[in-house]
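Please fill in the sequence for the structure shown.

STRUCTURE ENCODING:
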């Protein structure tokens, strides 16, 4: 029997190397599903990733893909978009790659409002190198580099990207399948920088060592029970929200993107020469 996702997924590259129950397959499936539901020709889509567990997924989606240096996916994606603005360029990255090593690129891409979509899978650790502390590791969490508990506060990536200037910002978990796909679709359609954070299970490090949950389904159930919609969270106290995951759309606005500004500048320069 033919694989039901053969038109979206490069099944010829299977099997994959991910841990059983890993969220990476879900995220790439949702990105491919969003592109397909928008009716975008897959030959006009480029996926860009850096280094890490999450980066390895680009080779399974049936479109052009690029794996770059650690934390440098957005820099490569910016070049692709400026060189050919007709392409739909999507960066799929992990929290260590995107907000740790590549954090500066992430902030400035939002400030520039370059017409890219970044889908960031946040599993709270550097998973591919042994589950070390990441900028997104929860306070008090026990990791391979914080054996007595994390004493640092984690990034709130959505607030960070909102402050930096992104025109679309949303957060969901792997429990929120349909809202996450709809947010990826909205992000792709934006004429500016869009950011979708997906809190997802890493059964090996987030599950076993931080949440003390051995099964991926238990992790997803934990996400479900800890999630609070943004609208409800607005009426809750800081204490009530201390261990909750606030999900929803945080930014949805319109602003001229960098590629469009560059096009206008080029046209004005040509006219002035005449």
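FILLED IN BY: designer on duty
SEQUENCE:
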């Amino acid at each position: 029997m033919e694989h039901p996702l053969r038109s979206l997924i490069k099944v010829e590259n299977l099997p994959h190397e991910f841990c059983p129950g890993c969220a990476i397959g879900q995220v790439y499936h949702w990105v491919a599903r969003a592109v397909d539901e928008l009716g975008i020709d897959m030959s006009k889509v480029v996926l860009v990733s850096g280094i890490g567990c999450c980066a390895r997924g680009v080779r399974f989606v049936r479109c052009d893909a690029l794996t770059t240096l650690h934390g440098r996916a957005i820099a490569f994606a910016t070049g692709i978009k400026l060189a050919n603005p007709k392409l739909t360029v999507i960066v799929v990255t992990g929290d260590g790659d995107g907000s740790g090593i590549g954090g500066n690129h992430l902030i400035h891409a939002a400030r520039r409002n370059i017409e890219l979509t970044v889908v960031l899978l946040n599993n709270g650790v550097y998973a591919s190198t042994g589950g070390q502390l990441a900028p997104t590791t929860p306070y008090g969490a026990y990791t391979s580099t914080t054996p007595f508990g994390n004493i640092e506060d984690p990034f709130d990536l959505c607030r960070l990207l909102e402050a930096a200037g992104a025109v679309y910002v949303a957060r969901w978990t792997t429990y929120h399948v349909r809202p996450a796909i709809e947010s990826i679709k909205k992000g792709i359609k934006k004429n500016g920088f869009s950011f979708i954070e997906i809190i997802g299970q890493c059964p090996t490090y987030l599950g076993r060592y931080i949440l003390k949950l051995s099964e991926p389904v238990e992790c997803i159930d934990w996400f479900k029970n800890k999630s609070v919609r943004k609208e409800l969270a607005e009426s809750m106290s800081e204490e009530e929200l201390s261990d909750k995951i606030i999900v929803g759309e945080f930014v949805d606005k319109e602003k001229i993107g960098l590629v469009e500004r560059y096009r206008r500048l080029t046209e004005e320069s040509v006219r002035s020469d005449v």
